[in-house]
Amino acid sequence: MGASSPVDASRPTDAERLARMRMSRVCEPGDADACRLVREHTAQALVERLEAGGLPYPKAAAWAERLPGADIDVLRRATDRVGARYLIPGDAEWPAQLEDLRLLESSTGDRRGGEPFGLWVRGTLALSEVVPTAVAIVGARASTEYGDHVAGLLAAGCAAAGSVVVSGGAYGIDAAAHRGALAVDGGTVAVLASGMNRFYPVAHGGLLDEVAATGLLLSEAAPGCAPSRSRFLVRNRLIAALTHGTVVVEAALRSGSLNTARWARDLGRVLMGVPGPVTSMLSAGVHEMLRQPESILVTDAAEVVEMVTPIGTALAPVKQGSTSPRDDLDRPSRRVLDAVPKVAAAPAASIAAIAEMGPSEALGRLADLSRRGFVVRVFDGWRLPPEGPDAP
Amino acid sequence: MGASSPVDASRPTDAERLARMRMSRVCEPGDADACRLVREHTAQALVERLEAGGLPYPKAAAWAERLPGADIDVLRRATDRVGARYLIPGDAEWPAQLEDLRLLESSTGDRRGGEPFGLWVRGTLALSEVVPTAVAIVGARASTEYGDHVAGLLAAGCAAAGSVVVSGGAYGIDAAAHRGALAVDGGTVAVLASGMNRFYPVAHGGLLDEVAATGLLLSEAAPGCAPSRSRFLVRNRLIAALTHGTVVVEAALRSGSLNTARWARDLGRVLMGVPGPVTSMLSAGVHEMLRQPESILVTDAAEVVEMVTPIGTALAPVKQGSTSPRDDLDRPSRRVLDAVPKVAAAPAASIAAIAEMGPSEALGRLADLSRRGFVVRVFDGWRLPPEGPDAP
């Protein structure tokens, strides 16, 4: 491949695009070696070299063995048939954030998956435009009603606030997240582990069509590529890389969603988790994650949006109970107020005794509290007003 | 008070002990000024000065007004009647950890409450001996069944591991914590906000007697002192100061338990919280606390014990799901395994196609998987064994 010069990423050629489609078909999605070789040498040069049998790696031999079956016309027709477009780096729609996968690979030697060299995309949104506000919401397939409910609320809240909700299109939390965003006519993106013509699960065909109608379907896998466990794992890196942060809603220990979470952490994305009952095995993985210092607990959409938008533009309000005017009282006056009976009135001397205060001071404070509406003087002493401030 | 020399804390005199009892009766429990004046000048000197009317502060005038009512014989009889002893600094049983309250006050000017100058204690345990292993478990009074259940389990687990469970004797989480420790014959301590002869809530008389029988009841308030909201708040500082860490199980926003949590944080104790459903208002305060970096999420007793025992003596096992032998497989072999059908067998070529791998490589890997028991060869191809490893 020595003769080829690296591709000019700013102006991809049709020949390079087609060569990448073919490479997508012959190598495993996200294969770190393939990603690096295509990036460094262009897919065109790599395909030529594979066809010439000139690459000594065992893996390259497997690619070469499969190249004749990766017919470019078949791939183009399949792409057209599913209404998708094939994006590669240098396209205006290509999201710059995916480069972080290359940085992770080159800085840490991470071999779990490189920057994809191409993506099939179906839908009306521009991928590069959804990414700046995107948040991933992922979790267990065998989720609970609680998890589905919370995932839906979070997604609806994030989408309503203008964030695009990215997930994996699976049963359970993923589906609840997509549906939550769709419910408020918000943007949502499903990143698939299989080719665009092989929806997984099959039963989600309708949901995924709906996602594509207003949002985006996305896959690194060529049409025809079947879903598999290892493909779900490399797919997860795209969910993490395409978003500012990942929220895990329910996850058992060793759940695949925690794999997305690890990608988010390794890519420097915000890692968020929704707690649940400690008695639920489906929250155990989230809790274990939340015990790590790099993750943050979130309970509602405002807290998520705050984490995934530029600093200061969306601060979640600090939660606090209703304020009550008694908070304005100083401590001795609160002590007196605490000592005033709710219904039957008490004389000032007895209130003073309960408040452990001299009767003269107590009387002065009762008078002040009465002026401020906290207590009322009745014929036989002092009591709280019928609908007074909160009693102790 | 200039003539008096500071008390020699290592050998408290009877006169000083009695003077502190009286000061406990005339001033508000935990009053920061009283705590400091008694510490700096001895209670004996302070009482003399108050009786002589020689202190110009308005607060001192209130104390002086109440001194004649704080009869020492009445206090002693009341102490005897409830079977309590009155401890002061310098007693062998006095816990050194309470000094942290003085350090907090002097280093930050914190005025919420000083080091107590005396404590009523009822029970057979020695206070100084329970503190080195003590953990506080606190939470909402209006707790849920979930909260009570988890508090009970945590307390039982901590107590079984040798930690003494400290709480406030209240309804809800406090009671569940005491009961959990009692259920495993473990040590438990209730720190009261009222005098030892005024149980609060009254309905917990039986529970508190049971706590005293095997553990300890503790109060800074003199016999006769009624409970009040402000007294609960200063009482909370003792729960935090007497323990290595505080676990909040359920707490609404602005709950009193969060006040104990703040004391724990300010005193450099470990701050722990048990999560719950984000849909539960009774977990909202805990979640808000867990969003702060100084707190840690805990889900079981082992995680609590790990935090409150000296480093390395009790490491909670990192939670993980069951391991499966497929984790030992390399990625290409897992890809092949993913492509093997569960029931109806498939030929190697079709498995190779699904695994996106050359047929020759796939065949070699199938043979290896077969040797290791992951797949079986049948007359028409390959399939998973009837009860094989987990399928994708």
Structure explained in plain terms:
The structure is a homodimer of 392-residue chains. With 392 residues, the first copy, chain A, is of the alpha/beta class. Helix content of chain A is 44%, strand content 11%. Chain A has 17 helices and eleven strands. The first copy, chain A, has helices spanning 14-26, 32-41, 43-51, 58-66, 72-81, 99-108, 127-130, 145-160, 173-183, 205-214, 229-241, 256-266, 281-290, 301-308, 331-339, 348-354, 359-371, and strands at 85-87, 119-123, 134-138, 164-167, 188-192, 216-219, 245-248, 270-273, 295-297, 376-378, 381-383. In chain A, strands 1-2-6-5-4-3-7-8-9 form a nine-stranded mixed sheet, with helices on both faces. In chain A, strands 10-11 form a two-stranded antiparallel ribbon. In chain A, helix 8 (145-160) runs parallel beside helix 9 (173-183) and helix 11 (229-241) runs parallel beside helix 12 (256-266). The longest helix of chain A has 16 residues, at 145-160. The first copy, chain A, is elongated, with a radius of gyration of 30 Å. The first copy, chain A, starts with 13 loop residues before the first helix and ends in a 9-residue tail after the last strand. Chains A and B meet through helix 4, helix 8, helix 13, helix 15 and helix 17 of A and helix 4, helix 8, helix 13, helix 15 and helix 17 of B.
